[in-house]
Design goal:
mainly beta, five-stranded antiparallel sheet
């Protein structure tokens, strides 16, 4: 009888020790904790940050595009986007597939992929589009710090993104 009680306790202890981040970055970090160094080559992703316009007039918001619709564009399994200025950031084309990150972000707006992005085989993972609305009274152009994970052992860290001409 005592052996039967010990088995569930052992299982609970083992499960507690198994952890992973398939659901996105757990916190704002300087680089993913993947036990391998980040790539030093330029990332293979097209990244743009442009002023949003409606009928040719700027709206005050910005559009951040990570990746491309091109057939040859590589997919990415994970991402962490950290705005360097105060404001609102939201996914335009993949609502519900990303989630806010607050731990370790020092009050900055940040988002990471969720399991709906990384685990959904039907999702196009080669591009995501974001809209950033700077905080009221902001006069600086926005910038972002991005980590992109293509595979566990292949990722790019601290990609600095500033407005594209």
């Amino acid at each position: 009888m005592l052996a039967w009680l010990g088995l569930p306790l052992f299982a609970v202890l083992c499960v507690k020790e198994v952890q992973g981040y398939g659901r996105g970055a757990p916190a704002c970090v300087s680089a993913p904790k993947h036990k391998v160094a980040p790539q030093t080559s330029p990332p293979p992703y097209q990244i743009t940050l442009v002023k949003k316009e409606v009928e040719g007039e700027p709206t005050g918001s910005w559009i951040l595009t990570v990746g491309s619709d091109e057939e040859s564009a590589p997919d990415y399994k994970g991402i962490l986007i950290v705005a360097q200025q105060s404001g609102e950031l939201e996914s335009v084309d993949n609502k519900g597939k990303f989630k806010a990150v607050r731990r370790g972000c020092k009050g900055k707006t940040a988002f990471t992929h969720s399991k709906k992005w990384s685990g959904d085989s039907n999702t196009n993972k080669s591009k995501s589009v974001w809209e950033f609305s700077p905080a009221e009274g902001s006069t600086l152009d926005p910038s972002f710090n991005i980590h992109i994970v293509q595979e566990y052992s292949m990722y790019w860290a601290n990609i600095e993104v500033t407005p594209t001409e």
